[in-house]
Design brief:
Layout: E1 2-5, E2 7-10, E3 13-21, H1 38-67, H2 69-72, H3 76-82, H4 85-98, H5 102-118, H6 123-143, E4 159-163, H7 168-174, E5 179-184, H8 192-200, E6 204-206, H9 211-214, E7 220-224, E8 229-232, H10 236-257, E9 273-278, H11 284-289, E10 295-299, H12 313-327, E11 331-335, H13 361-367, H14 369-382, E12 387-392, H15 398-417, E13 426-431, H16 434-438, H17 440-443, E14 449-452, H18 454-462, H19 480-495, E15 500-502, H20 510-519, E16 523-526, H21 531-539, H22 543-553, H23 559-573
Parallel strand pairs: 3-4, 4-5, 5-6, 9-10, 9-16, 10-11, 11-12, 12-13, 13-14, 14-15, 15-16
Antiparallel strand pairs: 1-8, 2-6, 3-7, 7-8
Amino acid sequence: MNTLKGIAAAPGIAMGKILAVDSEELLVPKRTIAENEIPLEVLRFEEALIHTRHQILEIQKRLAQDLGQEHAEIFNAHLLVLEDQSLREEIIHGLKKDHLNVEVVFNEVVRRHLKAFSRTNDEYLRERTADIEDVRKRILRNLLGKTGDQVPQVLKEPVIIVAHDLSPSETAQMHKRHVLAFVTEIGGRTSHTAIMAKSLEIPAVVGLAGAIELLQKGHQVIVDGSKGDVILDPDPETIERYRLEQRRQQEINRQLLQLKHLAAETLDHHHVHLSSNIELPEEVPSVIAHGAAGIGLYRTEFLYMNRSGFPTEEEQYRAYRSVLEQMAPNPVVIRTMDLGGDKFISPMHLPEMNPFMGWRGIRFSLARPDIFRTQLRAILRASVHGKVKMMFPLVSGVEEVQRAKEILAEVRQEMDRESVPMAPIEVGAMMEVPSAAITSDLIAPEVDFFSIGTNDLIQYSLAVDRVNEKIAHLYEPTHPAVLRLIEQVIASAHANKIPVAMCGEMAGEPTMTLLLLGMGIDELSTSPVQLPLVKRVIRAVEYSYAKTVAEQAMKLKSSKEVETFLLASLRQVAPDLVE
């Protein structure tokens, strides 16, 4: 028996045999072409793009029928790569310069971009290379006249798929097969394999280096997608232990589903607002299905990414209106675009050297008021269709909030003169930069609410790149410095009589719920599937107990001490949630 460690990507436990899926690397023949052959090569390239587009649209159609439109949207990025005019221009330029066949020119151009993407520090961008790589292989296969896919279309028995990586289209084509779990050698928690595995409720472990070599075909394995463990050739005792854990998890999930319509309040009737985070309007049905009382974070930058231009006011208005109408009368917090630095318009755009501390968030919006005003107009127009709130990302000080509010006021006055219907909206600031947390008492009088973004707050406070595997162990949500910043933000908010929410990953951790509840957080916003867990903890305790837990935790000296204490405290009130 041997236990291998990867990245936990999709929760759950699976047991079965391995099926290794080899990633084919196409051989691209090189030949010289004459000047008069260039138009023919361009035509071949255009025909391959059309054929590839039809293939992707067919996959997208099947996925929409089987899993829903929101999962089919994953392939929009693939289609946008095919429509990227700058890519076409680079290919034509390469044909004229090198006088080589289009397969070679295309392959070299795309590989150059993929290499640049792989060097970026940003996990999201690194993982979006899968979109481009998928399209690269499809176009090459069509140029070379090859048919079919490398993924087995018929699986004769339930298996655990092991691969170097799985493209979105490969994963989609396997979704109706007998797939017990996914294990990949590369990827992270936001890779498409992880996203689709979660949606399909299939356990997944990613980032397990050397998985294909270590896990040979036919071996019996256990995949623990909650811990990131892959156990090779488990003994009978281990198999029985994991079977018991499977049954325990199934019973917990059954009980959690019964909480959907119950209030998120403690035993002594202290209420906490529970909401969800979304990126696309298509995610709203899942939000409603899991009993959220609103949307605490609508990430709007995904309207801007992987496209050749900026979304129009009308396009944004329709997206915001759709979400507001579906969620009414519950509130929707729209975060203005966190665009720039690590998020780009074109899939081929090259990133900054240090994107996390670059030209992004409110900095980008204030530097490009033309783009910012268009978004503000769309949000204000949509405000008549539901209860909308707006918040500014990556605020570092009070001046940025004041300037953003000035632009908002100018836009509102402009729309008033045009007699455009609008409703009053609350304005908030995201607390995700230490300077903002430390000066939160100065910012609070300027806004109607705070929302704490813990992902960046932890990263900036501890100087830890959370996607750097060499220092990942230093990314500690329970570090006393982080907890003190959160405590300061909550205190500043309440001193100014405004509510404070949390929308980072910490908000969905049951072990953190007791602490945050006791610290006085007013709202927790997390992924829809985490909401029942958080509600379970809230309904199992008295607010007075949570406050005592928070007071004691704040006196501890290290992250490990805090983690141990919170786990023990949670075990006292919800032992079924603690392994």
